[in-house]
Backbone:
């Protein structure tokens, strides 16, 4: 991101602001592309027990040709995670403001709010609950995407059926 923004920041003029905006947008597109390209690196790292660079190459190979499908699934997962986060975090934030004395009244009147320890503790509990729900969800989606891509590209389902000894999948003729 810094590489995209740096040339405009060094210019320091009005044209520099435009260059910062263009560089920021280009950097965002590049970051999203790289995130989707390497999204299967961690499942490959854990399940195949390879090095980090080999896992990243493996992820790029598995995502090749299915980038838009992966992007859509990851975007949907992110959206679901954000909805769960809001549904859980907002009530904890409101409860924290109520418990924290005049936090809610000053928030509603538009005054400067100074939140104390009760608010931080209650909102922290909410964040722990959110993390407990959303991290396994995201990890499960990544693992399923990894297995799905292996089944689609490498016929992993046939290998698993052979390994399980299912009739009709044996290699002996």
Residues:
């Amino acid at each position: 991101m810094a590489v995209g923004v740096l040339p405009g920041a060094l210019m320091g003029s009005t044209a520099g602001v435009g260059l910062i905006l263009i560089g920021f947008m280009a950097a965002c597109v590049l970051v999203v592309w790289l995130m989707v390209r390497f999204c299967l690196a961690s499942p490959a790292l854990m399940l195949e027990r390879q090095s980090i660079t080999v896992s990243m190459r493996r992820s790029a190979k598995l995502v090749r040709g299915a980038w838009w499908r992966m992007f859509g699934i990851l975007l949907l997962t992110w959206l679901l995670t954000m909805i769960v986060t809001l549904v859980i975090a907002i009530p904890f934030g409101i409860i924290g403001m109520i418990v924290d004395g005049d936090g809610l009244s000053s928030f509603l009147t538009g005054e400067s709010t100074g939140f104390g320890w009760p608010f931080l503790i209650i909102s922290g509990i909410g964040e722990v609950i959110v993390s407990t729900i959303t991290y396994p969800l995201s990890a499960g989606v990544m693992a399923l995407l990894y297995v799905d891509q292996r089944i689609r590209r490498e016929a992993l389902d046939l290998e698993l059926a052979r390994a399980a000894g299912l009739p009709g999948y044996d290699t002996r003729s």
Summary: Helices lie at 2-11, 14-37, 41-48, 52-63, 67-99, 103-109, 117-154, 156-164. The two ends are 57 Å apart (CA to CA). The first helix runs from residue 2 to 11.
